[in-house]
Amino acid sequence: MPSSHHNPDIFFVRLRFKLAWCFGMQLTYDFDLFSLIPNTVQAEFQSEFNELGISAIMSEQVALFRDERTAAALKCADETVRQLFRDAGFGLNVYSSGAPPGRYFERDELGRTQRLTKLMSLTMERRDALKAVKWGDFSYGDFLEYNAAVEPIDEVEVNALLVAAHKKHRRRKRRIKVGFFCGIGLIAYSASNLIN
How many CA atoms lie within 13 A of 141 on its CB side? Predict the structure, then answer.
């Protein structure tokens, strides 16, 4: 997938959504896949799940929006809309994998594609029923446009970004402490000059 830095269309779509979100004017449509059974448990008990014939159920994932406002907007839409998303593999709760806005973990690419494809297929099948429903603040067009512009990110890359942000925070904190103590020293020096 081309990087948004090289594709001006994707760059401007992402910029528009970020600016609108900053000013509280638009919902963010990032979503992540949430495993119903944690991956560590699945790996540990995979052979037992296979023996019982329930490995497919145990590996189930649901797509959940990261933003509470987006999930709330979907909850306020008509039942027909909510059912459309549930049938496509979306839930109405909130979850964040830790991926930055406009990005998702590479490991989720297949699951995301499957849910988006299913959603669009169901939308086409139910288009007549969906014409008369109320979507509320949830915009299906914005949802599709936003998710067409998101890009995968490697977890190693996210961890590197988090480490860099932590180092930057520590440096800033250190500068604040140095500035504070310099200010205290200057006040003490000025006070001692006033007394003498």
Answer: 1
